[in-house]
Structure formats: structure tokens, C-alpha cells
Write a structure and sequence with these properties.
The protein is of the alpha+beta class. About 45% of the residues lie in helices and about 15% in strands. The protein has helices spanning about 5-25, 45-55, 95-115, 150-155, 170-175, 190-210, 210-220, 225-230, 245-255, 255-260, 265-275, 295-310, 320-325, 325-330, 335, and strands spanning about 70-75, 75-80, 120-125, 135-140, 185-190, 220-225, 235, 280-290, 315-320, 340-350, 370.
């Protein structure tokens, strides 16, 4: 083989080897549509109960832990529970956010059940955020139940990037806050409070990313590889964090829990928060009069009602809860923003040009259904 032939041969070998290597890697983000909904049996439930549970599980939750489970007492009679193994002890030590997420789950149950002709009779059982049994629900067949377009539940998602800077139109603010004036407040990006919330969100993220316990907890819930995502069907996937392309390929194949603890990862997280807050229509705050279990569940339901309204107006919402999670920032919010009530949600809001399909994962129903 002469020199020229050798170089050509070596080049082709490298390209082929590179191609073969690439084919053996984790090539694609694992998304919701990739989940095969296996029903391995165990508890036999009615088809409409299963659909209601599937829809309920599409509720949002912090780090997508899906902190709920359902005890099946008998057909159309369940207890909704809080799954302690899913609590976020480092960022949510009082389980405030767990209760809010379970509230969103309850709202989905109510809307989905209405669609099948049932009204829900809820009885709150919990007296503290740490109780396991949260609420009992009985489904009553009614002929004038409220129907709700369940497509809205299926299509709801958190969007984190590409927010436009236009402020929300008056009619959209009115639509989003109808019947909720006492609880939802819009802070447009022209207000001075907006700037403060931007800065404090960055600051709270800086503080949180420096906390090893919070970072370790986050590492437990990031699903870098498709294999991990497929096994767990929960947590923060690269697709849900809107990481695509070569960056996603690299992270899927070369990143793991230990990398989350590195300074470079922590710095990158704060950088992406700086970028996120740099463009939005402003902030929406959801407040409550107290912090009781019933109120937190109601507030979670309120969040979900709001989130289910936004897609039709091309509005995106991104919960950014770190100000409330870090002591240094949570203590100043009331005096600075001028609210006496308890702030339960800090939501970045904005119009988006396009609304992508949901990608975050959910555990199949049989994984959160328990027989008593
Ligand atoms: C109580 C609560 C707190 C949340 N906090 C944050 C947050 O601080 N940052 C963030 O990016 N998303 C936050 N989220 C959004 C979740 O990460 C998101 O709902 C979850 O990953 C599922 O994705 P989906 O909403 O697209 O279905 C929060 C959601 C809830 C209900």
C-alpha cells in the first residue's frame, strides 16, 4: 500500500469506527411518547378509573418526583396518599411543595372524572404536611357533571426557554385571574418588583447551587441517560430541561450524578437561570391566606387550573421556586413585593411563538396504585 492509499484507508477506517461508535451510543432523548404503558395487572380497576389516574398523573411536581400514590379501596373510592420516598428534604423540608403538587393532582382527578360523568366528593384526611393519607375521594355518577376538555391536561407542559418580552395583554390577565383575583397577581416586566424578583431568583439559585445537600438531591432526580429515564419514568430529563442536539448527546453519554456536584455544573445552572429571567412578560404570584393542609391543596388546584388555561393563549409559565426555598430570600419577599398573604408560587410567565408537545415522563398507573 502506498502512502496515499494508506492515508485514504486510515481516514475511511476512522470515519467507519466513529460511525459505529456513534451508533452504539445513547442517540436520542427519551420522551413521554416513548413510554410503553404496560399494565402488568395486580389490581384490577375499571377502564375509566385507569384513564382518570393517567390524566391525574400528568400534574406538575417539583423535580417531577410525582409524590402521590393511590390506595384503591373499592371501585370509585380511593385514598390519595403522599409518597414519603419522593419528598425533597433538602429544598422542601416542610413538604409545602409536595402538598401543592398533590393539590394539582387532585384538580386533574376532578376535571378528568367530570368528563366520565362523575362528580368527586373529596374529604381531606391529613392534618399535617407529613401525613401519609391526604384525601379520600368518592366518585358519584351525575348527569350534569362538568365536562372539561381533557386534551388540555394532556398538552400542558412547563416551558423554560424562548419567552418573548411582550407584557401580557389586559384581556389575557383578566382571563387568567377570573374568579382568582384575591390569589393571583401579575407583575409586568415594567414594574420595579419584576427586576427585584429577577435578581432574587438568580441570588436564590446561587445560594441553592452552593448547598451540597440540595445539589445531591437534584442529582438523584436528573435522568441523564435514556436508560435511566426509561427505568424511572420520572425526574428531570434532558428533554424536559430543553437540552437538545450535541449538548444533549454529550450529557446523555458522559454525564452522571457525580458531575452535578462539580463547580462547572453548578455555575452552568446559574447561567441558565440568568438567561431564563432575562426575557419574560413578568411574574405571576399565587398567594394564600394561610399555610394549612387544606389551603395548600386548594392552592395546588388553583395552580393547575391556571396552567390548564395558558396554552390556548400561547402563554408559557415556569415555576421558579428557589426564592421561597432559601431562607435569605424568602424572608424579604413580603416587604419588598408588598403582599401580606403567603406567597406559594413564583411563576415566570410569557408569550411563546410555538408551543412544543409535552416531554416530561410519568410513571404508569400500576406503579403508583396500591391495594389496601
Ligand atoms: C411545586 C412545584 C415546584 C416547582 N419548581 C420548579 C422550579 O423551581 N424550577 C423549574 O424549572 N420547574 C419547577 N417546577 C416544574 C416542574 O419541574 C415540572 O412540573 C416537572 O418537571 C414536570 O414537567 P411538566 O410540567 O412539563 O409536566 C415546579 C413544579 C411544582 C408543582
Amino acid at each position: 500500500m502506498n502512502r496515499r492509499n494508506f492515508i485514504a484507508f486510515a481516514g475511511a477506517t476512522i470515519v467507519v469506527a466513529g460511525g459505529v461508535y456513534y451508533l452504539s451510543t445513547d442517540k436520542k432523548n427519551f420522551v413521554r411518547a416513548d413510554i410503553k404503558d404496560e399494565w402488568t395487572g395486580g389490581i384490577s380497576i375499571k377502564e375509566d378509573e385507569r384513564t382518570i389516574l393517567q390524566l391525574a398523573s400528568l400534574a406538575p411536581s417539583g423535580h417531577n418526583t410525582q409524590p402521590w400514590f393511590v390506595k384503591y379501596i373499592e371501585p370509585y373510592h380511593w385514598i390519595i396518599g403522599s409518597d414519603k420516598s419522593k419528598w425533597l428534604l433538602a429544598v422542601d423540608p416542610t413538604q409545602r411543595e409536595t402538598m401543592l403538587s398533590i393539590g394539582a393532582f387532585l384538580q386533574n382527578i376532578e376535571y378528568a372524572a367530570g368528563n366520565f360523568g362523575y362528580s368527586c366528593q373529596f374529604t381531606v384526611l391529613a392534618t399535617s404536611n407529613q401525613d401519609e393519607d391526604i384525601a379520600e375521594v368518592k366518585f358519584i355518577k351525575t348527569y350534569n357533571s362538568e365536562t372539561f376538555d381533557i386534551q388540555k391536561i394532556k398538552e400542558r407542559r412547563t416551558i423554560r426557554s424562548n419567552y418573548l418580552a411582550d407584557i401580557l395583554k389586559k384581556e389575557d390577565v383578566a382571563y387568567l385571574t377570573t374568579d382568582e383575583y384575591d390569589f393571583i397577581r401579575y407583575i409586568p416586566n415594567s414594574a420595579k418588583e419584576h427586576q427585584w424578583l429577577n435578581e432574587q431568583t438568580i441570588e436564590a439559585n446561587r445560594i441553592q447551587t452552593c448547598r451540597d445537600d440540595a445539589e445531591k438531591e437534584l442529582a438523584e432526580w436528573i435522568r441523564f441517560s435514556s436508560k435511566d429515564a426509561k427505568v424511572h419514568c420520572d425526574g428531570l430529563t434532558l428533554a424536559s430541561m430543553e437540552i437538545e442536539g450535541i449538548a444533549a448527546w454529550y450529557l446523555r453519554n458522559f454525564y452522571g450524578k457525580a458531575d452535578v456536584m462539580k463547580n462547572s455544573f453548578r455555575e452552568k445552572s446559574v447561567d441558565s437561570v440568568i438567561e431564563q429571567v432575562s426575557s419574560s412578560a413578568g411574574w405571576l404570584l399565587i398567594t394564600s391566606k394561610d399555610n394549612s393542609v387544606v389551603t395548600l391543596l386548594e392552592t395546588g388546584k388553583r395552580l393547575q387550573r391556571l396552567l390548564l388555561k395558558i396554552r390556548e393563549r400561547n402563554i408559557a409559565i415556569h415555576p421558579m421556586t428557589q426564592i421561597l426555598e432559601e431562607k435569605a430570600t424568602s424572608q424579604t419577599i413580603h416587604s419588598y413585593i408588598g403582599v401580606n398573604d403567603n406567597v406559594q408560587f413564583i411563576l415566570r410567565a410569557g408569550y411563546v411563538k410555538s408551543y412544543p408537545q409535552p416531554v416530561s415522563l410519568r410513571r404508569p398507573v400500576n406503579r403508583f396504585l396500591r391495594k389496601i
